[in-house]
Design goal:
alpha/beta; 7-stranded mixed sheet; 13 helices; globular
Length: 270
């Protein structure tokens, strides 16, 4: 049974692509068949996972009917990726046909059976691309930073989620809110956590128990075409993300047993 998960927040810079790439990479490490779909015109998911997005077919080409989804999907060492580029920024004005909300869902019909998980990265906007992701998905993961404006972005999602449930996808659920750049020693982080828990209750969801702590490797990994899980696998943020992957993967795809080196580093340095 394929599980389709969208990573979403209206506010930019909250770690959507970092989260999506960690999910793709982490699930692939556990033996799952994974497809990452980039619906952000910035094309960062493909870049993060090592693709040369300027020389490949993209999701825009698929939506336009210029190539099949199978032809546009690129294989990487972290799993398959359907990349994006800046041409997708015209989606709101170009794709106006009836049932435009179902473009992605319809296209996935032919490939979804090949994958255990499909992870969708979305733009920082509530537009036709985001709605397409919601319509196609089983669940949403909502990353946010431990700051007020990021929390506002989460609350603004609620109306869109309810609209999609009522009109297109009644089975859509919010898997959880994920707090990035968390520092439990700061009063602000603690206050935001409490408010996020209230918002999660309104969404009939949860705040993930694992919080993603700050780390240089998170910012450096994309420049090397990697997720933080492979760039600095022993770092605190990588281990935090592995706990999120644990929740998504469930018992079907358990975490690989750590090496002696990983156990040593985890014990003495984390």
């Amino acid at each position: 049974m394929t599980q389709i998960i969208t990573v979403t927040n209206q506010k930019g810079g909250v770690g959507k692509t970092t989260t999506a790439s960690a999910l793709v990479c982490g699930l692939h490490q556990r033996g799952a068949k994974v497809l990452g779909i980039d619906l952000d015109p910035q094309g960062n998911l493909g870049f993060t996972l090592g693709l040369d997005i300027g020389s490949a077919s993209t999701v825009y080409d698929v939506f336009k009917g210029n190539c099949s989804m199978e032809a546009a999907i690129a294989a990487t060492e972290y799993g398959d990726v359907l990349p994006s580029d800046i041409m997708l920024s015209a989606a709101e004005v170009e794709f106006t046909a009836p049932r435009r909300e179902f473009m992605l869902s319809d296209l996935l019909t032919g490939v979804r059976s090949r994958y255990d998980f499909i992870i969708i990265d979305t733009p920082p906007a509530l537009n036709v691309l985001t709605v397409n992701a919601y319509v196609a998905s089983d669940g949403l993961i909502v990353p946010m930073e431990a700051e007020v404006l990021s929390l506002v972005g989460v609350t603004q999602l609620q109306e869109t989620i309810e609209t999609v449930r009522d009109a297109f996808n009644p089975h859509l659920k919010v898997i959880g809110i994920l707090i990035n750049k968390f520092n439990g020693r700061l009063t602000l982080s603690k206050d935001i956590l409490e408010l996020a828990q209230e918002v999660a209750q309104q969404l009939d969801s949860q705040v993930f128990q694992a919080k993603i702590h700050r780390g240089v490797g998170v910012a450096m990994a994309p420049a090397h075409g990697q997720s933080v899980l492979t760039y600095q696998p022993d770092s605190r943020p990588a281990q935090d993300f592995q706990e999120i992957v644990d929740v998504v993967a469930g018992e079907r795809f358990p975490r690989p047993k750590p090496t002696f080196r990983q156990k040593y580093i985890s014990k003495f340095f984390n």
